[in-house]
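From: lab user (bench 3)
To: helpdesk
Subject: output format question, protein + zinc ion

Hello, I'm new to running complex predictions and I'm not sure whether the block I got back is the full result or only part of it. Here's what I submitted:
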Amino acid sequence: MRKYTFIVLALVAGSLVACQSRDAGPAKSSATKAVAQVLTTPDARDIHSHADPAVARVTHVMLDLTADFEKRTMQGTATLEILAEGAEPLLSLDTSRLNIQSVRDGEGKDLTFRLEAAVPVLGSALRIELGAARRVVVAYSSSPDADALQWLAPAQTAGGKQPYLFSQGQAILTRSWVPTQDSPGIRQTWEATIRAPAALTVVMSGERTAEPREIAGGQREWRYRMDQPVAPYLIAVGIGELDFQSLGARTGVYTEPSRLAAAANELADLEKMVAAAESLYGAYRWGRYDLLVLPPSFPFGGMENPRLTFATPTIIAGDRSLVSLVAHELAHSWSGNLVTNATWADFWLNEGFTVYFENRIMEKVYGRETADMLADLSWDELQGTIKDLGGPQSADTRLHLELAGRNPDDGMTEIAYVKGATFLRTIEAAVGRERWDAYLKAYFDRHAFQPQTSAGFLTDLRANLIKADAELEKKLKLDEWVYQPGLPDNAVHVSSALLAAVDQRAAAFATRGIAAEQVSAWSYTERVRFLNRLPRKLSAAQLASLAQVMNLDAQRNSEVRFAWLRLAVANRYSPAVTNLEDFLTSMGRRKFALPLYRDLMAQGDWGRALAQRTYATARPGYHSVTVGSVDKVVQSAAAKAQ
Ligand code: BES
Ligand code: ZN
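Helpdesk reply: Thanks, we reran it on our side. This is the complete output you should expect:
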């Protein structure tokens, strides 16, 4: 039996909230608020947090912050409600580069605290002697280079007139703007009052509880809250010149005014996707599902902030071809946001489940053929990742990761995503879709609003699906999947007949070339597969003909553009350089930027010079997440060369 420490089942919180209307009144008093449970098994201990939840833990966060665009800080207070045991409990919070001004109890009396020296990766522990206090008010400001916050100058936005701010909490960045226990296993409810210049709109990953209010100094004040306990990496804010367009009864999109029509058009199927997701694995429990389409420096494709997915503008391809990314973030409303990895070592529980679910949504909305192509394409990416990680023996190809002394970012590879999804697909194939779907739906219900570990999932699977069927147990190879490197030999590989036809075209390209009519009807998936399957070495004439036939220098689909640029770089193909420079200086999505810089650095003086020149221009516009990764590639290689 696993032991839980819990006060009130979070499930109750979920169902209570589900009954409330969207614009329910002011926040309930904290006394009636449900408290989420915390796992106390050894595998749920989070090495990426200073928190000691068994001694004292944060259950609710109240933010009162002013966004100061001149100083580039968030300044104000975080009031924390605490559950603590013992007479003299010590509350340990995570912080990163925060300027702590005071720590007081609920009555305004100073509490003794110390801000410890920063530990690499983790940041500084803030230790507070609680005494009898169960409410703590921390007055602070964030650093101008807080990792979670990107402050954009007007020139970095589409409108060019107003500044912009967005946060990115996952994995362990929330601590750079909110002093709390920044661990995915310590769920917290929250509410926030945010002040910003009156011309700007503030959006958050919660429910807006009041209309914005004009206040002194040309400011407006906004209020949000999240009554369902969430992992702190899911607290998010976006501030900018934003407009909103509704897309359905509970869906819509926020973005800068000049981008709104294109974004709304791209996301026309959003409501349908939510319905498809619900038909698979149960009710959507978060009320609204909106998107915020960010400026191009957003370092990820998407981020599943509850009620408000954050997305890169690179999904606006003009032809709705990249909506699987939206299916992905939407799926996180179950896998990740409802049932959450207790630690980053089990990141695959978030992403692997989500990639599986994403594909099921795509199948429901767009059909089997489309879904199979996407799954097959991701299989290629998995094979590439296994190779990059040093082959199938490498410890980093395990689902349950060993992250001691490392940044959780190290675990954010296709292993978690695609090996994870392949594991679930393999179980589905073994037990049949009907039985598997019933299990998975019930699994999300059983663990809703709770943290989960690999061991916990396997225990649940054995208790509720396998039920001592020895033959099935043997066939599935569960422990091998979760704890061993490489891909077990029962892995189910979805292969798409359409992509197999594309592969033949790619194989014939060297001798026969390709004609425009052969590619004109291809989906983006087929285009990407084709480009990736071409021989890596092509002549300038072949590349020129390819570019012309596939109209590659005018591609609006960022995935196709990326595949083309990788091929061009591999061949030091100068005519594509302008396109490459444009791409790398006009967006900061790490998934595209990092491999392109890596590829360039592997291309001798030609590539290194180009990488360094382009990065010098692009770096000031990139988010710290992208800078952190690309610096290691471009600058360390530069240092080595000296
Ligand atoms: N939750 C992730 C993004 C993330 C992971 C941020 C780890 C920080 C740390 C998000 O759901 C995601 O996986 N995004 C992908 C897109 C998706 C379609 C695979 C991305 O950003 O590329
Ligand atoms: Zn994801």
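A quick orientation on your result: The radius of gyration is 25 Å. Let us know if anything else is unclear.
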